[in-house]
Amino acid sequence: MASLVDDSWPIQTGMTITVLQNPLRTQLHSTGETRFSVPSHWHSMHDENHVVLKGSMIVTQNGVKRVLRAGDAPCFTPRGVIHSLEILPGEEVIMEEETLPSEAQEQKVLFFRSLFFPGVLGSFFSMMQLFYHGDTYPELPLGNRWLERLMTVVVGGWVAPLLGYRLPDKRLRMDPKRFPR
């Protein structure tokens, strides 16, 4: 499990996240033992670039699936685009994610460290609080952005703290409009 200071940590069987420097980015390494997926979500304040260094993965953007392979150009996901990621078992995959603007990358590292901190993934309220602070909005079945944002703000920003939930790392403040520096 992640700590708030390690530069590399396991996230599930055969899967590790590493923080890389110059430029600051995160790397996901899958040995191919298990399936890994990131459910559909979107961001309002940052864009993402994904590049596969080894193997392949499935990237879905606004309902359009494509296979991203080692050697392909980076897959750019602009803010506001609903996207998901999937790595299938049976193949070793190394993928890097970079957040744009680059000033947001440090916050993204804090997001990943907090996401995989013990107890967070198993708790709806912890996840929603992390989404609220980390500029992440889950896609809901109706596909209504206003409702997705409202749920994240109400549950993650108000209800979770009222119930005593706390972020593993209080420095996570991805949205500068919501959390002026």
TrEMBL record:
Membrane in keyword set: yes
TM region positions: 110-130, 150-168
Family matches, as Pfam families: Cupin_2
Domain Cupin type-2: 37-90
This protein's UniProt keywords: Membrane, Transmembrane, Transmembrane helix
CDD domains for this protein: cupin_RmlC-like (cd02208)
Gene3D superfamilies given in the database record: Jelly Rolls
SUPFAM superfamilies membership: RmlC-like cupins (SSF51182)
Domain of life of the organism encoding this protein: Eukaryota
Record bears the keyword Ligase: no
Protein name per its UniProtKB record: Cupin type-2 domain-containing protein
Organism listed in the record: Roridomyces roridus
